[in-house]
């Protein structure tokens, strides 16, 4: 692959709802430009970008793949992202490296939740976009309906550049609304100029009017001319479109068919003409010394600096650090320094990845995307020549809230499991591993259940390790509500010195659930020698770790040693520690013990029409709705307190309720008394496990 100058590079992310046709469309562009001689199919598992075994098994993209396509004198680095909501971290990584987006809409399904999320992401990062309506070969595809939906959702920015030509229920061409010319497909994806059919005149007039309105909105002069009835010249329209598409103020709508590769050349032409090269963009950087954010221009004449925006750690094709060169020219002999970690960095070779195919190159210039091997780099690192004074922001990763307990199906595989999971976490920063010693379990966090299932699948496919995912044990607590006075006696005689210790203790509520216990002593007359007081407290400290009610940690207990007995020969620290433990178990059970459950503060953001459903569901989950706040974009934020145990499976249920348009976040708030039935259930489970 030849080396491209900065001005001839386009970095484009493909966004859209799951199953809308992104990967098929990219496959079609690879076919049209001669990269492949035959289009692969998602269903057959032979596309360029879906190369992971788990992707081929599930028939959908699960990670971002890079497919550079050379078209005329331009290199377009396409970043094909997953549409499934569980893999939003992959999308964030891709968007952080892109300068523009193609939002793919399925001609039959129309505007979906994933379409809206893609638009919101472009708005968030202020990047220009083109909407490409694919699947126009389907006789149920309706461009008119989609155009109405796009205008309703996204407003006057929408500008239809094409309208379809259909004859005998087949997609045979399109009208270029900008040039007002007909285009008829000849052999497959090639096309020739043709007359505009009469039956399209009404549709064309409406589309042309919408396009002219979008052009008129770009300046006061154009607006005045538009309202006075003046026509714009083709040159004026073309320049206004180019300037305003590049800024995101106009969003073109193009059409085609991924399966038949129709419309792909027009899309590539539009990307070349309307999308910015890195020379037209800046990269924000933080000055290490001051923390100030400054813009950095893409310039091949400066010192070398780059950012790592993704990691691929596959045992079959190796570990690659996906990089974007910001300044300078990266060569294989460039001495690099990891500015983020403060260490010298060595690397093997420089590659351009096309799916899983690694194409070695001698250099990459500012603005280009590639990959390095044999590095210790991680996602988010800034790498530069020594002496660099700035770092580039890491991709913004969403917080994972869905979690499950996990363990190796075979105990002998625990080391392999740990190694495999570490690599997967390196590859996907939204996967987190947490050790929960309190409940004697290990937890894996992700964005949703599907992502956790995919992790399990990758472990099996890549590392031949089976893991079991299960419902995690909730971190309940135990406490007491009354005062109880008990005696703990430990006697043991087995020849020689025996064991003897007696303690009389008061157990009562401490009034502070943030502390496990407080220990006091009011012993008089030396009934228990002072040197045994620490042993008594140690017996309490060990006992609160696993309460007598259901085996959960005990909190909020005041323990007071008031009296006791000792033997000058047989008493020891061990005997008094054991006596205190016996007293604790007896005392807690006599002091009206209760189970406390963790309560989380929950925030749910959904479109207004789903707010009632969400509140009803929260009530069913024993949640308490605290308030509702309007959110821009026709959404409502519902605030509630909810038992943490009721949040298990919430991600899946919320998506089911809202069609995937709802988001949520939560954090631990406090402990509250659990209902009687919950306490009974936990006691029964504890009794069964102790049998």
Word description of this protein:
- By secondary structure, the chain is of the alpha+beta class.
- It has five domains: 269 residues, 3-Layer(aba) Sandwich (Rossmann fold); 110 residues, Translation factors (Elongation Factor Tu (Ef-tu), domain 3, Beta Barrel); 69 residues, 2-Layer Sandwich (Alpha-Beta Plaits); 115 residues, Ribosomal Protein S5, domain 2, CATH 3.30.230; 88 residues, Alpha-Beta Plaits.
- The chain is 28% helix and 33% strand.
- It has 16 helices and 37 strands.
- An eight-stranded antiparallel sheet has the order 18-17-23-14-15-22-19-20.
- The longest helix has 18 residues.
What does the secondary structure layout of this molecule look like, with pairings?
Layout: E1 9-15, H1 22-32, H2 53-58, E2 65-71, E3 74-80, H3 88-97, E4 100-106, H4 113-125, E5 129-134, H5 143-154, E6 158-160, E7 162-167, E8 170-176, E9 181-185, E10 191-194, H6 201-216, H7 220-227, H8 234-247, E11 251-255, H9 264-274, E12 282-287, E13 293-297, E14 305-314, E15 318-327, E16 329-331, E17 336-338, E18 343-345, E19 350-354, E20 357-360, E21 363-365, E22 369-373, E23 382-384, E24 390-391, E25 402-408, H10 414-427, E26 432-436, E27 441-446, H11 449-463, E28 467-470, E29 477-480, E30 484-492, E31 499-509, E32 517-521, H12 533-543, E33 557-565, H13 573-590, E34 593-607, H14 611-620, E35 624-631, E36 635-643, H15 650-658, E37 663-673, H16 676-689
Parallel strand pairs: 1-3, 1-4, 4-5, 5-11, 6-11, 32-33
Antiparallel strand pairs: 2-3, 7-8, 8-9, 9-10, 12-13, 12-24, 14-15, 14-23, 15-22, 16-21, 17-18, 17-23, 19-20, 19-22, 25-27, 25-28, 26-27, 29-34, 30-31, 31-33, 34-36, 34-37, 35-36
């Amino acid at each position: 692959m030849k080396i491209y100058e900065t001005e001839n590079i386009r970095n484009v992310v493909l966004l859209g709802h799951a199953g809308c046709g992104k990967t098929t469309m990219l496959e079609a562009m690879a076919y049209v430009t001669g990269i492949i001689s035959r289009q692969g199919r998602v269903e057959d598992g032979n596309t360029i970008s879906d190369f992971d075994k788990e992707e081929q098994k599930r028939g959908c993209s699960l990670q971002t793949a890079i497919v550079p396509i050379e078209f005329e004198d331009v290199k377009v680095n396409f970043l094909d992202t997953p549409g499934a909501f569980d893999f939003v971290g992959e999308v964030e990584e891709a968007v952080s490296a892109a300068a523009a987006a193609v939002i793919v809409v399925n001609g039959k399904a129309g505007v979906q939740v994933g379409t809206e999320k893609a638009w919101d992401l472009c708005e968030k990062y202020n990047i220009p976009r083109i909407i490409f309506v694919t699947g126009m070969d389907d006789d149920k595809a309706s461009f008119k309906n989609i155009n109405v939906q796009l205008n309703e959702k996204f407003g006057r920015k929408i500008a239809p550049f094409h309208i379809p030509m259909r004859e005998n229920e087949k997609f045979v061409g399109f009208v270029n609304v900008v040039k007002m010319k007909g285009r008829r497909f000849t052999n497959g994806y090639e096309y020739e100029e043709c007359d505009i059919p009469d039956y399209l005149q009404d549709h064309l007039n409406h589309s042309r009017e919408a396009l002219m309105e979008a052009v008129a909105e770009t300046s006061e002069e154009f607006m005045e001319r538009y309202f006075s009835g003046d026509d714009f010249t083709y040159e004026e329209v073309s320049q206004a479109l180019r300037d305003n598409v590049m800024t995101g103020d106009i969003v073109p709508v193009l059409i085609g068919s991924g399966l038949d590769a129709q419309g792909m050349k027009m899309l590539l032409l539009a990307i070349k003409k309307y999308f910015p090269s890195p020379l037209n963009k800046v990269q924000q950087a933080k000055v290490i010394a001051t923390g100030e954010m400054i813009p950095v221009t893409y310039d091949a004449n400066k010192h070398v600096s780059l950012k790592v925006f993704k990691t691929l750690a596959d045992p079959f094709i190796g570990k690659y650090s996906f990089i974007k060169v910001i300044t300078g020219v990266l060569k294989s002999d460039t001495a690099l320094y990891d500015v983020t970690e403060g260490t010298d960095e060595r690397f093997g070779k420089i590659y351009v990845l096309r799916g899983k195919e690694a194409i070695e190159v001698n250099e990459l210039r500012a603005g280009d995307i590639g990959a390095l091997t044999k590095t210790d780099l991680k996602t988010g690192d800034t790498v530069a020549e020594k002496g660099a004074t700035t770092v580039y922001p890491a991709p913004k990763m969403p917080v994972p809230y869905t979690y499950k307990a996990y363990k190796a199906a075979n105990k002998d595989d625990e080391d392999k499991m740990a190694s495999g999971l570490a690599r997967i976490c390196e590859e996907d920063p939204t996967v987190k591993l947490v050790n929960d010693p309190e409940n004697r379990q290990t937890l894996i966090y992700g964005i949703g259940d599907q992502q956790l299932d995919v992790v399990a699948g990758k472990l099996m496919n890549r590392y031949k390790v089976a893991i079991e995912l299960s419902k995690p044990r909730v971190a309940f607590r135990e406490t007491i509500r009354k005062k109880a006075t008990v005696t703990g006696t430990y006697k043991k005689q087995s020849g020689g010195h025996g064991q003897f210790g007696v303690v009389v203790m008061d157990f009562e509520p401490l009034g502070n659930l943030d502390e496990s216990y407080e220990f006091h002593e009011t012993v008089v007359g030396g009934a228990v020698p002072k040197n045994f007081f620490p042993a008594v407290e140690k017996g309490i400290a060990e006992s609160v770790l696993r309460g007598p009610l259901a085996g959960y940690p005990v909190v909020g207990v005041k323990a007071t040693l008031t009296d006791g007995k000792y033997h000058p020969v047989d008493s020891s620290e061990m005997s008094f520690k054991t006596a205190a433990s016996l007293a604790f178990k007896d005392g807690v059970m006599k002091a009206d013990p209760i189970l406390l459950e963790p309560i989380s503060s929950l925030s749910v953001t959904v479109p207004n029409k789903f707010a009632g459903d969400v509140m009803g569901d929260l009530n069913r989950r024993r949640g308490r709705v605290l308030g509702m706040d309007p959110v821009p974009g026709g959404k409502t934020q519902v605030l509630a307190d909810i038992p943490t145990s009721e949040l298990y499976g919430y991600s899946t249920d919320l998506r089911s309720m809202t069609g995937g348009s709802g988001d949520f976040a939560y954090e631990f708030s406090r402990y509250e008394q659990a209902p009687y039935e919950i306490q009974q259930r936990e006691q029964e489970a504890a009794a069964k496990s102790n049998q």
